Description:
Elements: H1 2-21, H2 69-72, H3 81-94
Amino acid sequence: MKTTFLIAALLLLSAGAFGQCCGSVALPSMGTVWAGPDHSLPATRHGLAPERDLREAGGITMAHGELAAWEVMPPVEEVPLGDAAREYRKEHASAKKALVRWVKVGG
Length: 107
């Protein structure tokens, strides 16, 4: 078993080594150097683009009688973190616990 695994690993590693050393015959041996884009022109002033409407149908849409959410919704009463932790601790203490019984089998 170990011999089969060793032979498979050797074949895999030798194939990878062959691909690195001998597989790139057509490519130059030196790597290419990355050069960033050249933005040699300075910034110039020009006019803005003409205004255009982003909605499908132009015009103004108005609705009457709508209220903002803060005017309609009641304020949320937040429970302090300590009180919430105490409540969870009480629930955990009163929760039904699982019974675990270890039985030793055989001697």
